[in-house]
Design a protein that fits this description.
homodimer, 9 helices, 2 domains, 6-stranded antiparallel sheet, Arc Repressor Mutant, subunit A, DNA-binding, two-stranded antiparallel sheet
DNA sequence: ACGAGTTATAAGGTTAACCTTATAATAAAT
DNA sequence: ATTTATTATAAGGTTAACCTTATAACTCGT
């Protein structure tokens, strides 16, 4: 993770986007990529070709795109830079949790290895970003804390938020405004199967969220559901 | 100094360069500009035209370029961002003094007002960069500590280094390797008028520097030249 | 006041990263 | 198996920021 692998800011954005979209399927359709980056499919295809020529990825026609080992290294490098900047912005500069993502997007492209590693030391080698996602190590490893999607829970189940994912500013702001952030306790109150609305108790407050939002939250079950109030005190 | 005035990284570099070259003459020839930015005169001229159309500067044919009020504001904004990043890199990340300039050049373009001001607070509202140059205030003021060029001194004169200027990585590294940095005491030992070499005592070490390098150092005279050793202890 | 040297402009080229519109190839679903 | 929807490619355009080479305009020193 020492020398920069991608040429240009743009390629870095592509690598990061592919990495994020990879979680559902390792083969990422160019259309999803274009969609996420807010550019046309034609432009994305062009860029994919350029990146294929640089051995950053493979392209299976009509199927999608998959990172090569070199591409994966580059992607993790950028994600490391990104998440370290997020930690800095939140922990040191006390900037709001929700805006740190977009601000880090600017900074991540302007940071070489020397600065990133000095930052990591300065921040105390953090392992997770403020949104709960793991920070890749310099040797290219990224391990998620085991958890399950909030949408798999049933009413009355009790959990702690591990992370929000994928990270986009709009979603982060929205969830933050409902108190949804890593470390917070959530209890499923009821699920309306008809219009897909979830009523949740988030850190003691009752909130209603759509299934789409609920599906972005990864949690860890709290096995001991004796008295809600008691458990809450333990964990918040 | 809130909203960004310049379009693109490149324009920001031009503004900064003009501001630095302005110190000798308020009318900066395009050729000097091109020289400093390491680009062709034709390209610099093109860019100057674009920036003139954006009212960032005026161009007096065959004379040079002068910043408008808007351009000046933009330039000071970038210089503020740049010098705050330098302080961060040196003070917090403990990166070497000489490399901080180039690293800050990357970061300065990736930082909006919110981050810069949060940084300033975090750093304790510093007034000078690690090379001794003043950090502009958010309202667009920049005041130099009064000083004189080291090249105006005579043998046996005694001074403290205030700043190095203009900042370029090569010059900073070179001067740093000879112990020349703000706060250090310098005594002029002898000046060879023939090949323009200056023999100096820099922080107790005898060093030889060219006139070109000496001219980049701004100092403050030490009025009390009783016993060199004594004075040194007071000031280092 | 003229010629050397500087400065500006004109003309045409390059690259990266985007765009639109139109057509062709393939996958998936009836 | 054929239609529909997705995906890819072809063709041509745009913008910012650079480049070179050539020519024109101007300044300044003698």
């Amino acid at each position: 993770m020492s020398e920069r692998v991608a040429t240009g800011e743009s390629a870095e954005m592509y690598l990061k986007a592919i990495c994020e979209l990879m979680t559902t399927d390792p083969l990422v359709p160019i259309s999803s990529l274009a969609d996420r980056l807010g550019i046309s499919v034609v432009s994305a295809t062009e860029m994919v070709h350029r990146m294929r020529d640089q051995d950053l990825l493979e392209h299976k026609r009509y199927k999608g795109v998959r990172l090569t080992e070199e591409g994966r290294r580059g992607a993790l490098d950028i994600i490391r830079r990104h998440r370290l900047w997020e930690r800095f912005l939140v922990d040191k500069l006390k900037l709001p949790w929700e805006v740190s993502h977009d601000l880090a997007c600017q900074l991540e492209h302007a940071t070489g290895a020397e600065v990133v590693e000095a930052m990591a030391t300065f921040l105390g080698e953090p392992t997770h970003c403020p949104h709960g996602n793991p920070i890749p190590t310099p040797d290219g490893t990224m391990t998620f804390r085991p958890g399950l999607s909030l949408e798999t829970l049933k009413p009355d189940e009790n959990c702690i938020v591990l992370r929000i994912r994928p990270e986009t500013n709009a979603a982060l702001s929205y969830l933050a405004s409902h108190g949804m952030m890593p470390g917070v306790q959530v209890i499923v109150k009821s699920i309306n199967a008809f219009d897909h609305l979830w009523t949740l108790e988030i850190g003691g407050q009752e909130e209603i969220l759509s299934k789409a939002m609920v599906s972005r939250v990864v949690v860890q079950l709290v096995d001991d559901p004796t008295e809600d109030q008691e458990v809450e005190k333990e964990h918040v």
